[in-house]
Specification:
This protein has 265 residues and is an alpha/beta fold. 25% of the residues lie in helices and 21% in strands. It has helices spanning 31-42, 55-64, 92-104, 125-130, 191-202, 236-241, 253-260; strands at 12-15, 46-50, 70-72, 77-80, 83-87, 108-112, 118-121, 138-141, 155-159, 177-178, 184-187, 209-213, 227-230, 244-245. Strands 5-4-3-2-1-12-13-14 form an 8-stranded mixed sheet, sandwiched between helices. A 4-stranded antiparallel sheet has the order 6-9-11-10.
């Protein structure tokens, strides 16, 4: 912290990416948001990304905008000053139980077992139901693949439509996210816990956390222990839980909030 900023109380900022830092229409970082991130750093605040994106995706984004701290993989992976300090896979027994039920009911799956765009499959049932994923994905086909022996499963995908859900009562035994009509994603979803772990590593009080988000997946990190700010373009349910609702991200919402609270000058 510079001598000029020494009187300012240090805050710990955690920003969602899509719809918060980036414009949904262009997928580019909003210029005023980028300007604000660096102004916060210059004022001596801690600045991090908080995202559900896997580490390999999140770190490339963070590096492109000059941010060295991450709570990524839904809170399962922590990066401080560019170094991974914590990485958590899904709970193995529960994950195996879900995959066994999927096999029993003929549901196709893909498994991510390392920090890459690679997914493993034992057959083609997932592709037959859902087709190829729109995101860049490397598919590994191995008829002998055994998820029982795969100790680190970071994410898995199950191919079932909304219409099929009523016949699959077990699908909510783990948290899931439906991004398309044809499949759901099961991944670590503990952004709040990840933020708390990061603060523990930093030996800083939770009350000094500030989170910015816009979507329903950000609800988990909006907590009364700290300050939660919803973007004006965000979901109504998130706004209702927020301590403050700022302008839309493309209307300089991040910068306006940080100036309003005196976090930047």
């Amino acid at each position: 912290m510079t001598q000029h900023d020494a009187s300012m109380h240090r805050k710990y900022f955690f920003f969602d990416i899509d719809g918060t830092l980036t414009d949904d229409a262009t997928h580019l970082v909003v210029p005023s948001a980028l300007r604000t991130l660096h102004a916060l750093k210059q004022q001596g605040h801690f600045v991090a990304i908080a995202t559900g994106r896997a580490h390999y995706k999140a770190v490339s984004f963070a590096e492109s905008i000059g941010i060295e701290n991450l709570v990524c993989a839904g809170g399962g992976c922590l990066v401080k000053d560019g170094q991974v300090i914590e990485s958590n896979a899904l709970p193995h027994e529960q994950t195996v139980a879900m995959l066994q039920k999927a096999d029993r009911d003929g549901i196709g799956w893909l498994i991510m077992k390392d920090d890459s765009d690679g997914v493993w499959m034992r057959d083609f049932r997932f592709l037959e139901t859902a087709g190829f994923r729109k995101e860049l994905t490397t598919y590994h086909y191995d008829p002998s693949f055994d998820y029982h022996d795969t100790r680190t499963i970071f994410k898995f995908y199950l191919a079932y439509t909304k219409e099929m859900e009523k016949d699959l009562p077990w699908i909510d035994e783990m948290g899931r996210l439906r991004m398309t009509e044809d499949y759901c994603i099961y991944q670590y979803d503990e952004k709040k816990k990840g933020i708390m772990s990061m603060m523990d590593h930093l030996q800083a009080p939770y009350e000094d956390v500030v989170v910015f988000g816009d979507g329903m997946n950000d609800l988990v990190m909006f907590d009364p222990m700290w300050t939660s700010i919803a973007m004006g373009n965000g979901e109504e349910k998130l706004k209702q839980k927020a301590d403050y609702v700022t302008a839309a991200n493309t209307d300089d919402g991040i910068e306006k909030a940080c100036r309003r609270f005196g976090w930047i000058r």
